[in-house]
Amino acid sequence: MADQNKILKYLIWGLVLAGIVILVNSWFLKPKPLPPPPILTFHPAIKIDFEILGSQDIQDLLPFEKIPFPEEIGRENPFMPY
To answer: N or C terminus: fewer CB in 10 A for the chain?
Structure first.
C-alpha cells in the first residue's frame, strides 16, 4: 500500500511539473511574430530571345512519333458476362 502511495505522489508531482513547463513555454517563452514581408518588390525586366528558335540546331530536331491507337477499345457493354 505504501508503494502505491509513493508512486501516486511522484506521478502527481510529475504532472504538476509538466503543467508548469507547458504554461511557461506557452506564456513566457512565446516566439515573437515575424514582420510581414515587403509588398513592393522590384523585379528586373525579363527579355526572351526568340532568335534562337530560328537556328539550324533547333530546325534539325525531329518531332515526336505519333502513337497508333488500337482499332477496338473494350467491349460495348462491360457489365455483360462473357
So the answer is: C
10 with 2: CB under 8 angstroms? no
Helix (H) or strand (E) run with residue 25 in it: helix 2-27
3-state secondary structure of 13: helix
- Give the separation between CA 51 and CA 55, rounded to whole angstroms: 7
Share of the chain above pLDDT 90, in %: 18
Look up cell 527579355; give the residue: 47
pLDDT tens for 40-63 read 777 889 898 888 888 888 888 878
Residue 43 grid cell:
523585379
